[in-house]
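Predict the 3D structure for this chain.
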Amino acid sequence: MLELIIEFITSERIYLPILYIAIGILLYNIIAKTITKVSKINIKNHTSKGLEKRKTTVISLINNIIKYVIAIIIIIMILNLNGINTTSILASLGVVSLIIGLAFQDIIKDLLAGIFLIFDNAYAVGDWIEINGFKGEVISFGLKTTKIRAYTGEVKTLNNSSFTEVINYNLSNTKFTINVPVNYNTDINNLEEILNSITDEIKKIKNVYNINLQGIDSFEASAIIYTIEIECAPNTNIEIKRKALRLIKEILDQNKIDIPYNKLDVHIEK
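Done. Predicted structure below.
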C-alpha cells in the first residue's frame, strides 16, 4: 500500500503539474513586480496625475494579459503530459474564436479602441474633454466605454469605437479674454495704469498663471473695448473670470471710470 502511495506521488502526472503551476506563479510574480518597479520609477519623473492614472491602467492590462498567457501555456503543458492531443484542441479553439469574433466584432472593436486610447494617452478620468460635440468631465474610462458628465449634470456613455476625434482641455493651460468697455472720453494711458495696478491682485487668484493687457480691441457704437488676456489652469476660467471682473469693476469705480450702458427715458403723459 505504501509503495502504491509513493509511486502515485512520484508519478510525473502528479508532481509535474504542481511544478508547472508553481513555476507559472513564480514567473508571473517576478514579471509583475518588475513591471511595477519600472513603472514607479517612471511615474516619479512626472507630476501629471492623468499620466499616472493612464500608466496604472496600462500596467493592470499588461499584468492580466501575462497572467492569462502563462495560465494557457500551463494548461497546454498539463494536457500534453496526460497524453491529450492539444493540437486538435487548439485548431478547434481557432474555429470557435473565429465564430465568437464575428458574433462580437463590435465589442472587440470597442476593446481595441480602448487599448489604443490608453496607449495614446488621449485622456484620463478627471479630464475635461469634448467628443462628438458633447463636453464634460471623464468620470469613467474603461476598455469598452467612456462616461462623460456635462457641467449641467448629464452623463453620456460612449462606446470607444464610436468616435475618432477627442478634444482634451486638460493637456494645456486655458487662455481667455475679458472685454472692458469704457467711454470715448476715457484717457487710455490712465486706464492702462489703473488696470496695471490690479494685475498683481488678479495673479493672486488661485490657478492664475499670467495676465496681459492686450490693448484696444474695437470701437463700438457707444464704447471703446479694451481687452485683457488671462492664462490659467484648465477648466478654471469661469470662476477666475468672475473674480477678475469683480476686481476690475471695483478699481474702475474707485477711479470714477464709467462703463457705458443703455439708458431708457420714460415719458408719462397726463
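The beta strands are 128-131, 134-141, 145-149, 155-159, 167-168, 174-182, 208-219, 224-232.
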